[in-house]
Amino acid sequence: MDIQEVDLDIAPRLMGVKGYRWFVSKKIIMVTIGGMGSISSWLTLLLSRTIPKLGIVAYDFDHFDERNAGGQFFLYEDVGKNKIEAVNRALVALNGEETYIIGNSKFEEGSEVTDVTFSGFDNIEARVNMFNSWLKKEKGIFIDGRIYKENYQVYAVQAGNIAQIEAYQEILKKTDIDIPDTDCTTRNTTFIAMGAAEKMTTLFLNYLENKLDPEFSPAVVPFKYEWSAQSFTGNSFYL
Predict the structure, then answer these.
(1) Is the confidence at residue 183, as pLDDT, over 60?
(2) What is the average pLDDT score of the chain?
(3) How far out from the chain centre does Cα 91 lie?
(4) Torsion angle, CA of 227/200/57/92, rounded to 10 degrees?
(5) Other C-beta atoms lying within 10 Å of the C-beta of residue 123
(6) Longest distance between any two alpha carbons in the chain, whole Å
């Protein structure tokens, strides 16, 4: 993974998670996040509450508008601001310190990613481009979160797992036309977006735990997790 050894003071807000096996006190961990909307904005908050020094390479050139207030993480006073800038300001307001986020651009074919890459894009083309860039690194983990009304799916592809790679590539063959659209009164909700972000964070932390302490009983990292609010059921799938 993209990790640097450093001598860090642990912020008081993180002392409560210091004892977990995935907790890293002397490392800067760099991750990539695609999109900064419903899922990724909350994902950024959750990651900032688990990693003492987190570096984020983010891709999003959009701006927050009032309609985003129903499902995305930002301060209302930042309506009109670039999403990455606004999320960083919200993190400072809640955490008392800045999370290192760089980026303010659209993800294009061939754009750079880190070993740990999260996709929160709302279109297939961006997911395909990001996955292909990650796949060329041949290491790390790619985690993709998707929302449809009150349902979400999260995929985790680990480098070297051919079955996972091939299964995810089949999923990417679906175009945006194949995915049902929602009417303007049935948009993403905060609780569903946070649920997807929580599962993405947990998958990453389980993966990190396995890398940091491989001799310990491995934490579970399924290929897919899906949740349905209506049936109140969640299911994991393994490859």
Answers:
(1) no
(2) 84
(3) 15
(4) 100
(5) 11
(6) 50
> In 135-144, which positions are buried (b, 16+ CB within 10 angstroms) versus exposed (e)?
beeeebbbbb
CA 124 vs CA 45, 162, 188: distances in Å? 24, 21, 18
Q: Taking the CB of residue 225, how many other CB atoms lie within 10 A of it?
A: 20
Q: Is the dihedral of CA 34, 38, 92, 86 positive or negative?
A: positive
Q: Which two tokens stand for residue 56?
A: 């984020």
Main-chain phi, psi angles of 94, to 5 degrees: -90, -35
Q: What is the pLDDT of residues 121-148, one digit of tens each?
A: 988 899 999 999 999 999 999 999 999 8
Please list, in sequence order, all residues whose beta carbon lies within 8 angstroms of the beta carbon of residue 160, skipping any fewer than 6 positions away: 138, 139
| 200 or 102, higher pLDDT | 200
pLDDT range class, residue 72, cuts 50, 70, 90: confident
Q: Which two tokens stand for residue 120?
A: 């929160």
* Structural domains of the chain, with CATH: 3-237 (3.40.50.720)
Give the C-alpha distances (Å, rounded to integers) separating 105 from 108, 195, 201: 9, 26, 24
Q: What is the pLDDT of residue 235?
A: 95
Instruction: Tell me the CA distances in angstroms from 30 to 27, 116, 203, one per residue in order.
Output: 10, 7, 16
